[in-house]
C-alpha cells in the first residue's frame, strides 16, 4: 500500500470511526422515513398528494382542520398583494373552515382550496425542484376566475408554494409562500399532537423536508464541523459518489439501436450516426440526399444536421444541431434555417454551431433508488416526441433546397448557384 493510500485510509478512519460529528450526523439520518422509501423526495406529484390529504378537514387523518388552518396562518403572515383578500392571523383563527373543499390536479392546478363560508378560493402551484412555465400561472388564474366569479363575491388568493425564494412570473396576482414558512407552522402541530400514526407521519415528513429541501441549523452546524476537520476525506468520498444520471445515460447508450428503432416507429427514418462518452447522435436519413448535405466536419459521416441525446450534469437533454463544415455549403443551410429555429430564435447564431431545437428528456432528478427501466421508458418516449416534432418542422423547410437545386437559381434561391 502506498503512503498516499495509507494516509487517506487514516483520514477516512478518523472521519467514520473516531469522529463524533459523523456519528451525530449518521444518527440523524438513521431513522426510517416512509417518504424516502416511497421515492417522494423529488416527486412533486407525491408531495402534492400528501399535502392535499392533510389539508382536507374531511380526511380521516385526525388533524381535522388544524393543518389547513396552519397553512392559512403561514399565508396570513406573508400576504402582501394589493387586491387579494387580506388575511390576518386573527381572521384565520376565527374562520369557519370545517367544510373546506380541497381539490387535487383540478384543471392541472396542483391544489385548489375552496372555503365556501368565506367565499375564498385558493389555487396553489407547488414547485419543489421544477420551474414555472412562462404563462402557467396566468393561465391557472384565469381558469379559476372563470369558475368562481369576482362579481359574485368570490375572493381569490393565488399561492405560489416553493422551497426557493422564487418570484412568481404573474407577480402582481400570485402570493409567494416558502415551504420553510409552512413547515414552521406544521411543526407546532407535530410537537403538540401526541403519538398518533398521523402525527408520526407528519413529523417524518417534516424531517424529510429539512434533510433534503430546507435549512436545518443543527445539521448545518454538524456539516460545517465535518468539513472543517475532515475536508480531504470528504472530498475523496465525494469524488467517488455513485453517478445515477451517468448510469442511466450508459444504459441508454447500450440501447442506442433500440432508441433509433423507437424513433422510426413514430414515422421518422432515423439511423445511428455516432456516440461518445456523454453524447449519442442520430441522423434523419431522408436528409442525406439534400444538396451538399454531407460537407460537414463535425462527424465522420459528414452530415450537417444531427439529433443529439446528451448528458449535461444532472440532466439529459436532446438537441437538433447544424454543425460546422464547408463554409459556402453551410452558409446556405444557416441562411435557410436561421429564422426557423425552435430554440432561442432571436439569439445570435454561432459561426460554427446553430442549435435548431432543444428539449429536456427527463424532468425529475434521479438517484440510486430510481427505477432504471421507468427512467429509460420516459427518455425514450420524450425522444420520440422530440424527433417527430423537429422533423415535421424542419423537413418542409429543407425540402426547398432540393427544389432550388432542380430549378434555375433565382431571387428566391436560398444559396448561391455555385452551392446548389
Short description:
45% of the residues lie in helices and 16% in strands. It has 420 residues and is α/β, with parallel strands linked by helices. Strands 1, 2, 3, 4, 5 and 6 form a 6-stranded mixed β-sheet that branches.
Mean pLDDT level = 83
Encode the helix/strand succession as letters.
Answer: HHHHHHEEEHEEEHHHHHHEEEEHEH
Structural class: alpha/beta
Q: Helix count, per DSSP?
A: 15
Q: Summarize the amount of helix as a percent range.
A: 40-55%
Compute the CA-based radius of gyration: 28 Å
Describe this structure in words.
With about 425 residues, this protein is an alpha/beta fold. The chain has two domains: about 40-210, no CATH class; about 245-405. It has 15 helices and eleven strands. The strands form two sheets. Strands 1, 2, 3, 4, 5 and 6 form a six-stranded mixed β-sheet that branches. Strands 7-8-9-10-11 form a five-stranded antiparallel β-sheet. The protein is globular.
Amino acid at each position: 500500500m502506498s503512503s498516499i493510500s495509507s494516509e487517506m485510509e487514516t483520514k477516512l478512519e478518523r472521519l467514520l470511526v473516531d469522529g463524533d460529528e459523523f456519528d451525530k450526523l449518521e444518527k440523524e439520518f438513521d431513522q426510517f422515513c416512509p417518504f424516502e422509501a416511497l421515492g417522494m423526495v423529488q416527486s412533486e406529484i407525491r408531495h402534492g398528494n400528501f399535502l392535499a390529504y392533510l389539508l382536507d378537514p374531511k380526511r380521516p387523518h385526525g388533524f381535522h382542520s388544524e393543518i389547513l388552518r396552519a397553512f392559512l396562518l403561514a399565508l396570513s403572515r406573508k400576504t402582501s398583494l394589493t387586491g387579494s383578500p387580506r388575511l390576518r392571523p386573527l381572521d384565520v383563527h376565527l374562520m369557519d373552515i370545517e367544510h373546506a373543499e380541497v381539490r387535487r390536479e383540478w384543471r392541472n392546478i396542483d391544489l385548489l382550496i375552496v372555503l365556501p363560508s368565506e367565499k375564498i378560493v385558493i389555487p396553489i402551484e407547488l414547485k419543489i425542484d421544477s420551474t414555472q412555465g412562462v404563462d402557467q400561472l396566468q393561465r391557472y388564474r384565469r381558469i379559476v376566475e372563470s369558475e368562481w366569479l369576482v362579481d359574485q363575491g368570490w375572493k381569490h388568493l393565488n399561492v405560489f408554494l416553493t422551497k426557493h425564494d422564487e418570484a412568481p412570473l404573474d407577480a402582481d396576482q400570485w402570493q409567494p409562500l416558502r415551504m420553510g414558512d409552512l413547515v414552521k407552522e406544521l411543526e407546532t402541530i407535530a410537537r403538540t399532537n401526541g403519538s398518533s400514526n398521523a402525527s408520526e407521519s407528519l413529523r417524518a415528513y417534516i424531517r424529510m423536508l429539512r434533510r433534503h429541501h430546507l435549512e436545518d441549523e443543527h445539521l448545518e452546524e454538524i456539516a460545517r464541523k465535518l468539513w472543517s476537520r475532515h475536508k480531504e476525506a470528504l472530498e475523496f468520498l465525494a469524488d467517488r459518489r455513485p453517478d445515477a444520471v451517468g448510469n442511466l445515460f450508459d444504459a441508454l447508450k447500450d440501447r442506442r439501436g433500440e432508441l433509433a428503432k423507437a424513433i422510426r416507429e413514430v414515422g421518422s427514418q432515423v439511423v445511428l450516426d455516432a456516440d461518445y462518452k456523454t453524447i449519442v447522435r442520430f441522423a434523419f436519413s431522408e436528409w442525406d440526399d439534400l444538396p451538399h448535405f454531407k460537407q460537414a466536419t463535425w462527424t465522420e459521416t459528414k452530415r450537417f444536421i444531427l439529433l443529439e441525446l446528451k448528458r449535461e450534469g444532472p440532466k439529459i437533454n436532446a438537441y437538433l444541431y447544424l454543425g460546422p463544415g464547408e463554409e459556402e455549403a453551410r452558409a446556405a443551410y444557416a441562411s435557410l434555417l436561421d429564422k426557423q429555429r425552435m430554440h432561442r430564435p432571436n439569439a445570435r447564431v454561432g459561426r460554427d454551431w446553430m442549435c435548431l431545437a432543444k428539449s429536456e428528456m427527463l424532468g425529475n432528478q434521479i438517484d440510486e433508488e430510481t427505477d432504471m427501466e421507468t427512467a429509460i421508458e420516459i427518455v425514450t418516449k420524450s425522444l420520440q416526441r422530440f424527433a417527430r416534432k423537429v422533423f415535421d418542422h424542419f423537413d418542409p423547410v429543407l425540402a426547398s433546397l432540393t427544389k432550388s437545386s432542380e430549378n434555375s437559381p433565382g431571387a428566391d434561391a436560398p444559396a448561391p448557384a455555385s452551392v446548389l
